[in-house]
Each structure stands twice: as structure tokens, then as C-alpha cells.
Amino acid sequence: MAHHREFYIDGAWVEPLDATPLDVIDPSDATVAATISLGSSADVDRAVAAARAAFASWSTT
Fold first, then answer.
1. In CA terms, which of 30, 34, 57, 59 is 20 to 30 Å from 51?
2. How far apart are CA 22 and CA 19, in angstroms?
3. What is the DSSP string of 3-52?
4. Global pTM?
5. What is the pLDDT along the chain (61 residues), one digit of tens a residue?
6. CB distance 5 to 13 below 8 Å
7. Which domain, by its residues, includes 12?
8. Backbone angles phi, psi at 33, to 5 degrees
């Protein structure tokens, strides 16, 4: 079973501010396929801020 607890934000794997786990269920056999972190609104804010900052330089290429 895979464990994906970090988020890829601003070019790096970072620990979520809220690491509440969520099991991802395989619908074919109802087993746990992976466990991921849910994250929080603060994690989303971090990702959005990084995306906005990257967009400025990316959009001119």
C-alpha cells in the first residue's frame, strides 16, 4: 500500500500543515490502495500562492 503524505508545492515535497489521513479505496475490491493527507485550507493557500508566483514568469515564455 502506498503512503503519500506530502504535497508537491513550489518545486518541493512539503509536509502538510494538517496531516489528517484519508484512505483511498480501490473500487474493484474495496481494499485500501493508498493513504494520503487531506491537508487544510492553509495548505491550499500555500499552493495557490506558489502557483500565482510561478504564473508571472511562466506566462511570458
1. 34
2. 9
3. EE--EEETTEEE--SS--EEEEE-TTT--EEEEEE---HHHHHHHHHHHH
4. 0.75
5. 677 789 999 999 999 999 899 999 999 999 999 999 999 999 999 999 999 999 988 998 8
6. no
7. 2-58
8. -90, -30
